[in-house]
Design brief:
This protein has 146 residues and is α/β, with parallel strands linked by helices. The protein contains six helices and five strands; from the N terminus they run βαββαβαβααα. A hairpin with a 6-residue loop joins β2 and β3.
Length: 146
Amino acid sequence: MLAHNAADLQTKALGDVEICLVGDEHVVTAYEMKMKRVTVDDIDTALQKIARAKSEIHNYVFITTEEIDALVADYASKFYEKTGGTEIAILDCIGFIRHFLHFFHRLRVEFLDIYQELVLGEPDSAISQPLKEAFLTLRKAAESDE
């Protein structure tokens, strides 16, 4: 897993977090975190990054703290065939946790413990109380599935 803390243009990164397969340096999934609503321009920028990537990107996922515009999500979903198989998705914070748990399905409880500590430790200005409560609801549902 690769991460950075500078602009993508400076680092030549595909996203804020990049996932590579074990033993391989080619990015297969890129995550772009947004503290704003994802726009068509954001999707177009992602398409430019995907087009100039050195290897095939399987997934380009936006995670947003804002409401997801249905028209923008629909726009993003139309590029799978045009990109040669890259799925572009937009997730809110809770949707991202659901998505991310598939990576850690064998370590789900440990992942949730660490993530819960991080979420609850953030001030309300970074993660609102309703979002914290939504996470705890999701956590309870995940534990009931075991």
